[in-house]
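Tutorial, part two.
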Amino acid sequence: MSFESKEQAEGYWKENLKIMLKLLAVWFVVSYGCGILFIDQLNEITFMGFKLGFWFAQQGAMYVFIALIFIYVKQMNNLDKKYNVEE
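Running the prediction step on this input gives:
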C-alpha cells in the first residue's frame, strides 16, 4: 500500500480511526451496556424463550462482534477504494 502524499496517508488513517472508534463504541454498548448495565430492563423482554439481558450477556454480544467484523471489512474496502490503495 503506497500513498501519493503524506496528507493522503494521514487522511486515510484518520478515517480508519473514526471507523474503528464507532465500531468499538457499538461493541462496548452491546457487550457492557446490554450485558451488564441495562440487564434488569432487558430481562423484562423475552427472546427465543430467554430473558433478553441474559441472551445478550451469553450470545448476543458475540453475534454483534462477528457482525462488526464484517462491517469493518466492508467499510475498509470502501476506504481503500476511496484512497485508491485497494489490493
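The helical segments are 6-37, 39-42, 52-82. In part three we will examine how such features are distributed along the chain.
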